[in-house]
Write a structure and sequence with these properties.
By secondary structure, the protein is mainly beta. Helices cover 9% and strands 22% of the residues. It has a domain of 45 residues: Single Sheet (Rubrerythrin, domain 2). It is built from 1 helix and 3 strands, in the order βββα. The chain is elongated.
């Protein structure tokens, strides 16, 4: 399901509409509060996807793969 947020210019209310992914978005949704078609789609953030946890490694294998810090360059005496 895809969720879209809208703002109604007549009653100044915000509302959301859910559409199945297979269905097309209606060009003029109506406000459920006042029935107006003077609505504007609001920008919304995408919902985060669940993250799969990586297998836990032992601390020895982590230390073996850690990058060593860079040593500062020595400046030559001029």
């Amino acid at each position: 399901m895809t969720q879209y947020a809208y703002h109604c210019w007549d009653c100044k209310q915000q509302f959301t509409v859910q559409h199945p992914a297979s269905q097309t978005i209606p060009t003029h949704p109506t406000c459920p509060h006042c029935g107006s078609t003077r609505v504007q789609e609001l920008a919304t953030a995408a919902a985060p996807r669940p993250v799969e946890k990586a297998p836990v490694e032992s601390t020895r294998s982590k230390q073996a793969h850690m990058r060593q810090p860079r040593q500062p360059r020595r400046r030559s005496a001029l």
